[in-house]
From TrEMBL:
This is HAD family hydrolase. It comes from the Bacteria. Pfam families: HAD_2. The keyword Hydrolase applies.
């Protein structure tokens, strides 16, 4: 049973071209926050920290990490902090080689959000293969059995 979700930020919840959250992102987060612990993991530096703060999404997450590169330990730290098992975690992101691969390595449920830039991406490595594919925020909610 899923108890927590870690989201990628850029191109999953946030549109870097327009510098605003995607339409429906806040609604999705507010809906999921009623049921799940929420984490946000993103690559970047101080500018990414500022972007997250200015996005209006920051205060809705229980855990936020901005790292140079995503790796399994970042996800395991989240699990340890909130006392969850890997199978109780869903990882949602647009990039197969980062968040999806890390989620798979630790045994989490993985959801590839491919509405935006990842539309041209293909699964070329078994370790990058997501358990679920979502093409909209509604798909994410359906996968998680949330109305």
């Amino acid at each position: 049973m899923i108890k927590a979700i870690i989201f990628d930020f850029n191109r999953t919840l946030f549109d870097p071209l327009r510098n605003v959250p995607f339409t429906g992102a806040l609604e999705l987060i507010l809906n999921l926050k009623k049921i799940f612990r929420l984490g946000l993991v993103s690559t970047g530096g101080e500018s990414r920290v500022a972007t997250i703060s200015e996005s209006g999404l920051r205060e809705h997450f229980d855990y936020i990490r901005v790292v140079e590169q995503k790796n399994e330990q970042v996800f395991l730290d989240f699990l340890k902090r909130f006392n969850f098992e890997p199978q109780e975690l869903a990882v949602v992101g647009d990039y197969l080689g980062d968040e999806i691969a890390c989620g798979n390595k630790i045994g989490a449920v993985t959801i590839w959000y491919k509405e935006w830039a990842a539309l041209t991406m293909k699964v070329e490595n078994e370790g990058h293969k997501p358990q679920f594919i979502a093409e909209s925020y509604k798909d994410i909610q359906k996968i998680l059995s949330v109305k």
